[in-house]
Amino acid sequence: VQLQASGGGLVQTGGSLRLSCAASGIRFNLHAMSWYCQAPGKQRELVANIITSGHTNYADSVKGRFAISRDRAKNTVWLQMNSLKPEDTGVYYCRAYSPYTDRTFWGQGTQVTVSS
Prior knowledge:
By secondary structure, the protein is mainly β. It has no helices and eleven strands.
């Protein structure tokens, strides 16, 4: 199983980034896909989630600014991040969870740094 996350970088406040996570080795359509952020010195927290039906949910702090989407044909999930703030800084991890097998897989993380 591999979750290859990419798209992070350094951006100024108000800027945008698009993260992608390419999944292999799993039945993508049977997994809920999520993005988590781990800020320096803090625990990893859920940013956005998209389940197999396409329903999405977001952390309150990113509602209206971030959008999660998935492409079943490409086995890829994206996180469009707009109006970025310094508090969005952290390592962003892609997560796949199957409610059928109760198994969770994590990607390697991609660093997002928002300068003020």
